[in-house]
Every structure is written in structure tokens, then in C-alpha cells.
Amino acid sequence: MTREGVDLSFLDLPEILQIVFYPRKSHIKPLAPNAKDHFIEVEKGIKIGCRYHTIGKDCPSLLYFHGNATIVDDLDLFAPLFNNVGINLFVAGYRGYGLSNGTPTVTNMIKDSHRVFEGFKKIVEDYSYRKSFFVMGRSLGSLSAIELAYNYQDDLQGLIVESGPSNNLKQYVSSMVPLDHPIWRDDSTFLNKVKLRSISKPTLIIHGEQDSLIPVDEGKELYENSAAKDKQLVIIPNADHGDLFIVGKEQYYKAIREFVKNYS
User: Fold this and answer.
1) Average model confidence (pLDDT) for the chain?
2) How far apart are the first and last CA of the chain?
3) How far, in Å, CA of 132 to CA of 212, rounded?
4) 178: alpha, beta or left? (left if phi > 0; alpha if psi -120 to 50)
5) Within the chain, what is the greatest distance between any pair of CA atoms?
6) Cα separation of 68 and 168, whole Å?
7) Which distant-in-sequence residues (6+ apart) come within 8 Å of 258 by Cβ?
8) Beta pairing, strands 35-43 & 46-53
9) What pLDDT score was predicted for residue 230?
10) β-bridge partners, 236
11) Which residues pair with 134 in a beta bridge?
12) How far apart are CA 164 and CA 195, in angstroms?
């Protein structure tokens, strides 16, 4: 059960999990001098490997949940771009990904996000860093990010959603989970768009104009459903699902920089 009581166990069937998750183990390579690995225990014997890329004690910290085909190591290349705009970047993985042990399921991905958030705040406190927290989720990671904003918005300065779905896994598992299942109802708090109706914190939504995996209309639907008074939708021209931070690099990082600066 998630914190709000939605039972997701029916999504944990092997035939669904092989569509949702593509776990890879961590690369063997040295860390940048300003990066450190942390392991957050989410249940007895299960730890999630995370990496904290820091730039300064007075800078805000952003908890980042990556996509389903990415691992924490992959963000090493992009972390300096966050650091360069004054953001301490904390990248969190999932069970079975990178340095994490265990096996990923939809249920434990959502459940673990709560433990990861608690661990993230504790680590920031242990560093004696500024308590200014943002959460960001890319693609599948948007489910974790929005889950946290839905439950802990008083602890956050803002929410960033990149290439996120409004209807979560609906288009991918509809052949296995009927479209008339309660999980897809317009009031189901499993859905990103429904949770956003209760999130009033500043919200930034970034989406690729030519996204072939999660169409840009889903990004627009997220924006339309957001209850935030201060919200922004940034559509990167000519960008697909996996290249918007490259195709629209300047626009992408400018939007994140200004958002975090404005609300930190």
C-alpha cells in the first residue's frame, strides 16, 4: 500500500515489470572529487545507491529520480551542469539499479521514494547544508517525484517534472490491465495528473516537442492539472524523449536554473 492507500500489487506481475523496468548494474569508474555515494536502507537488507554531487553549503539540493533505462552513474556527465547553476544534485536509484540491491517493482518503487526522501534530508542535514529542497523526476522517475510532492509539499520548495506521463503506465500496460480498472479512473491518486491537482508548490514541467515515447500532450495535461499558482511549461522544440537536455541544452538548464533560483 502507498501512503494514501492505493494497492499497486496487481502491477507487479512479471509481464508488466519487464516492460516498466530495465535495470543495469553500476559502471566501475572513479567518482568526481565533489561526488559521494550514499546508501539508503528502505527495508531490512535492501539499500538504494544514491550519489550526491555537491557545489556549496549555501546552495539548494535537488533530489533527482532518473528514468527506467538509466542508472545513477549516467548522471555523472550532467551533474556539473546542475552544479554550475548553483544546485547540489542528489541522484537516487531504484532496487536492482546501479549500486542498489533487490528487485524493482512498481509497489516498492513508490514505497521506497518515501524512505529515500527521509534519507536525503538526513544526509543534507549531516553535511550541514542549506535546508532548501527540490524534487525532480524524469520519465518513470516522475512517479516518485510527484509521489513525494503529493505527500510532503510542506518540506519542498518546488517540483520539476521532465518528460513525465500524465496517466502513468496506462498506454504500456492497457493490454494487461483493462482500461475500466479503477486505477485509471480520473480520480485515481495513482495517476500523476490527479496528484498534481493537490500540489500547490511551484511546479516546472519540461517536455520534448517530438517525444515519441510519452507524447507532449501528456506534458500539457500535467500542466493543465497542476494546482500550483506558480507553474511553468517548457516545451523543447524538435526534441524527442531521450535528447531534450541535449537538443535544447540552453533552454533546459536555463529553465531549471531560474526555477530553483526563484523559489529556493
Assistant:
1) 94
2) 32
3) 34
4) beta
5) 51
6) 13
7) none
8) antiparallel
9) 98
10) 208
11) 62, 158
12) 13
As a whole number of angstroms, the distance between CA 262 and CA 163 comes to: 22
Give residue 110's identity as a one-letter amino acid code.
I
Sign of CA dihedral 212, 174, 163, 206: positive
Q: What is the pLDDT of residues 95-118, one digit of tens each?
A: 999 999 999 999 999 999 999 999
Helix (H/G/I), strand (E/B), else coil: 5: coil
The sign of the torsion formed by the CA atoms of 198, 215, 18, 97 equals: negative
* Complete domains list, the chain, with CATH: 9-263 (3.40.50.1820)
- How far lies 219's CA from each of 83, 96, 131, 184, 222, in Å? 26, 28, 29, 17, 5
| pLDDT tens column, 191-213 | 999 999 999 999 999 999 999 99
- DSSP for 54-105? ---TTS-EEEEE--TT--GGGGGTTHHHHHTTT-EEEEE--TTSBT--S---
Q: Return the C-alpha torsion angle 92, 98, 101, 102, nearest 10.
A: 80
Grid coordinates of 193: 495528473
E strand or H helix that includes residue 39: strand 35-43
